[in-house]
């Protein structure tokens, strides 16, 4: 972490936890945050659609200091899109965040770059804070094509986006080979990619955009990745399903930010 952007840690619960389990995890996170508040780090949880209303209710009623997001949104406002959910529906539920173009959606649900760009626009037009996920498959990394690959994903999603929406965009670099595999990108790989993403984003007009890393982040590796990888936080999958491991990742960001702030002063 080198810049003063407030760290952000997002827990992607994927297709796990029914609404009772989701409320329980939300409450556990609330208890841990009450005992040891995250002073510098913004925390967001991203449950399945069917849990959103229950999780948002306990977050509001128990004043749990986390934002709530959805894992996906359809680019259309309404209509014949069976099984889908629109940004206006999410807003009406009080949802603030949405993941856009997670690699699992791209790979398993035919979400190509065009649909990702449409989805991003629909999300921010409706005032949602969008987390644009980018990242290369293993074979692209082996061929040394990762920089060009993610630059093209960014350009396709962000070129022409009205600058008034830029502040609603966060980028998450998630190399596909590191998601759910236990393989983590090395701190050098994360640092090189973060710097490449920042310069690509600046060229596209987004100078103040947070860059997160995701891919098998856990309580053990978070501190070194945030300090040496120069990221602004994490998108966490597996380790976000337990309050203790999720909060350990939050804590690593908080401590790193405090250290950097002390050095700056
Ligand atoms: C993710 O799904 O965004 C993710 C990073 O998963 P995991 O942490 O389990 O690799």
How would you briefly describe this protein structure?
The protein has 265 residues and is α/β, with parallel strands linked by helices. The protein has helices spanning 19-35, 52-61, 87-92, 103-108, 113-125, 138-142, 146-158, 187-203, 222-228, 243-264; strands at 8-12, 42-46, 67-70, 97-100, 129-134, 169-173, 211-214, 233-236. 45% of the residues are buried.
Tally of domains: 1
CATH superfamily: Aldolase class I
Order of helices and strands: EHEHEHEHHEHHEHEHEH
Shape: globular
Q: What top-tier CATH class fits best?
A: Alpha Beta
Tally of separate helices: 10
Round the Cα radius of gyration to an integer and report it: 17 Å
CATH architecture: Alpha-Beta Barrel
The strand count comes to 8
Largest sheet: 8 strands, parallel, barrel
| Secondary-structure class | alpha/beta
| Share of helix, binned | 40-55%
Notable characteristics:
265 residues, alpha/beta, 8 strands, binds phosphoenolpyruvate, TIM Barrel, eight-stranded parallel β-barrel, 14% strand, 44% helix
What do you see in this structure?
With 265 residues, this protein is an alpha/beta fold. The protein has one domain (8-264): TIM Barrel (Alpha-Beta Barrel), CATH 3.20.20.70. Helix content is 44%, strand content 14%. It is built from ten helices and eight strands. The protein has helices spanning 19-35, 52-61, 87-92, 103-108, 113-125, 138-142, 146-158, 187-203, 222-228, 243-264, and strands at residues 8-12, 42-46, 67-70, 97-100, 129-134, 169-173, 211-214, 233-236. An eight-stranded parallel barrel has the order 1-2-3-4-5-6-7-8, surrounded by six helices. The longest helix has 22 residues, at 243-264. The radius of gyration is 17 Å and the shape is globular. Phosphoenolpyruvate is lined by residues 12, 174, 179-180, 214-217, 235-239. Phosphoenolpyruvate binds next to strand 8.
């Amino acid at each position: 972490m080198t810049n003063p952007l407030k760290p952000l840690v997002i827990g992607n619960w994927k297709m796990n936890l029914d609404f009772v389990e989701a409320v329980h995890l939300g409450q556990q996170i609330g208890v841990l945050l009450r005992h040891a508040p995250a002073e510098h780090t913004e925390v967001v949880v991203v449950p399945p659609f069917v849990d959103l209303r229950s999780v948002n209710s306990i977050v509001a009623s128990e004043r749990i200091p986390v934002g709530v997001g959805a894992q996906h949104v359809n680019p259309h406002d309404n209509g014949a899109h069976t099984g889908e959910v629109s940004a206006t529906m999410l807003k009406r539920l009080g949802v603030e965040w949405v993941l856009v173009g997670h690699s699992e959606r791209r790979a398993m649900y035919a979400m190509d770059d065009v649909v990702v760009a449409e989805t991003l626009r629909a999300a921010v037009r409706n005032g949602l804070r969008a987390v644009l996920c980018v990242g290369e498959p293993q074979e692209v990394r082996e061929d040394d094509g990762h920089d060009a690959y993610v630059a093209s994903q960014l350009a396709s999603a962000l070129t022409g986006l009205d600058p008034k929406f830029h502040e609603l965009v966060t980028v998450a670099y998630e190399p596909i080979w590191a998601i759910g595999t236990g393989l983590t990108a090395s701190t050098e790989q994360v640092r090189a990619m973060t710097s490449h993403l920042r310069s690509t984003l600046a060229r596209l007009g987004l100078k103040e955009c947070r860059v997160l890393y995701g891919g098998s982040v856990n309580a053990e590796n978070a501190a070194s990745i945030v300090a040496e990888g120069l990221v602004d936080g994490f998108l966490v999958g597996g380790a976000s399903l337990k309050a203790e491991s999720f909060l350990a990742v939050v804590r690593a960001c908080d401590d790193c930010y405090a250290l950097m702030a002390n050095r700056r002063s």
